[in-house]
Write a structure and sequence with these properties.
By secondary structure, this protein is of the alpha+beta class. It has four helices and twelve strands. A hairpin with a 4-residue loop joins strand 10 (182-189) and strand 11 (194-198). One of its GO terms (cellular component) is cytoplasmic exosome (RNase complex).
Length: 242
């Protein structure tokens, strides 16, 4: 296990070489799984995430059906090999919590009332974990939903802002997430200008909170453009093949 760095920011550069307002490297690819209705693969720094969507389809058991709308069911899981020390297979308290907040973050974007009594299943599998796996998973899941043709008000994009060495930073790396002073993941619909998730761990002053939220939203807007590009590339490629 690495030791806590003495300083996280030196001469304006963070420990991984980024500027305070800079995202980690980002790669998004849509339509990576043939057997799923929609899918996406995402790399954010050292995070590697795959998301798959199945549905809308009849929900079973039937007592879980809603007569007025579809039920969105998100499942977040980390592969045993995704972390340095092998993770025990199966759901954990943390994975259940992230599954719940991911569902709540994505629901406002989906026209669920178009599919009464149906279910939409979203699986988010962390293949390699660094920091910010929940934000990476939500971002990938949103692309997978769009790839699956699920009607949406807007894409949902998720990033985090935090505080290290008293400085507000975007998209925390592993060391910043582990030893930083605060972390605030959000999910956001850029076209609607609507937050769908806001969590916080640590302490901000009221002024720092405003700065962190503004920076996280700006980060979301950058990632949003990459989401759109991934979807455009997928369907441009499909059009050429046809």
């Amino acid at each position: 296990m690495k030791e806590k760095p003495e300083k996280f920011i030196v001469d304006g550069k963070r420990i991984d070489g980024r500027a305070p307002k800079e995202l980690r490297s980002l790669k998004i690819e849509a339509g990576v799984l043939e057997k799923a209705d929609g899918s996406a693969y995402l790399e954010l720094g050292n995070n590697k995430v795959i998301a798959a969507v199945y549905g809308p389809r009849e929900l079973h058991p039937r007592h879980l059906q809603r007569p007025d709308k579809a039920v969105l069911n998100c499942r977040y899981d980390m592969a045993p090999f995704s972390v340095e020390e092998r993770k025990r297979p199966g759901p954990s308290r943390r994975s259940r919590e992230i599954s719940k907040v991911s569902t709540e973050a994505l629901e406002p974007a989906i026209f669920l009332r178009m599919y009464p009594r149906a279910g939409i299943d979203v699986t988010m599998e962390i293949l390699q974990a660094d920091a910010g796996t929940r934000t990476a998973a939500i971002t990938a899941a949103s692309v997978a939903l769009a790839d699956g043709g699920i009607p949406m008000r807007d894409l949902v994009v998720s990033t985090a802002a935090g505080k290290v060495d008293g400085t507000i930073v975007l998209d925390l790396c592993k060391e910043e997430d582990q030893w930083g002073e605060a972390d605030m993941p959000i999910a956001y619909m850029p076209q609607k200008e609507q937050l769908t998730l806001l969590q916080m761990d640590g302490n901000f002053t009221s002024e720092e909170l405003d700065q962190a939220l503004e920076l996280a939203i700006e980060g979301c807007k950058q990632v949003y453009e990459r989401q759109r590009e991934a979807l455009k590339e997928k369907y441009a490629k499909k059009g050429k093949e046809e």
